[in-house]
């Protein structure tokens, strides 16, 4: 059983590598207190630092994290 309940979503998001330019827009699959899941157009290595932007909330809203 998962520690946090996941909530399905279909929000447009941008997953940005912290060292590189923004990636293509994607869709958020699900989100919980433990993290978020979305599909990336490129493979990302585990531990890669990323920033999740949700354009509907404004450009200043950014959530730092790493690929699990």
Structure description:
This protein is an all-beta fold. The protein has one domain (7-66). 0% of the residues lie in helices and 49% in strands. It is built from no helices and 6 strands. The chain has strands spanning 7-8, 12-17, 22-32, 35-38, 49-53, 62-66. Strands 1, 2, 3, 4, 5 and 6 form a 6-stranded antiparallel beta sheet that branches. The mean pLDDT is 82.
Largest sheet: 6 strands, antiparallel
Give the SSE order as H and E letters.
Answer: EEEEEE
Q: Helix share of residues?
A: under 10%
Query: Unreliable runs, pLDDT <50, ≥5 residues?
Result: none
Count of DSSP-assigned helices: 0
Overall pLDDT confidence: 82
Shape: globular
Q: What's the β-strand tally?
A: 6
Alpha-carbon distance between the two ends: 18 Å
Helix/strand-derived class?
Answer: mainly beta
Number of domains: 1
Kindly estimate the percentage of residues that lie in beta strands according to DSSP.
over 45%
Q: What Rg is obtained from the alpha carbons, in whole angstroms?
A: 12 Å
């Amino acid at each position: 059983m998962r520690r946090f309940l996941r909530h399905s979503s279909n929000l447009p998001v941008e997953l940005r590598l912290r060292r590189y330019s923004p990636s293509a827009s994607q869709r958020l699959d699900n989100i919980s207190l433990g993290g978020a899941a979305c599909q990336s157009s490129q493979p990302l290595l585990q531990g890669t630092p990323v920033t999740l932007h949700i354009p509907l909330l404004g450009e200043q809203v950014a959530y730092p994290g790493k690929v699990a």
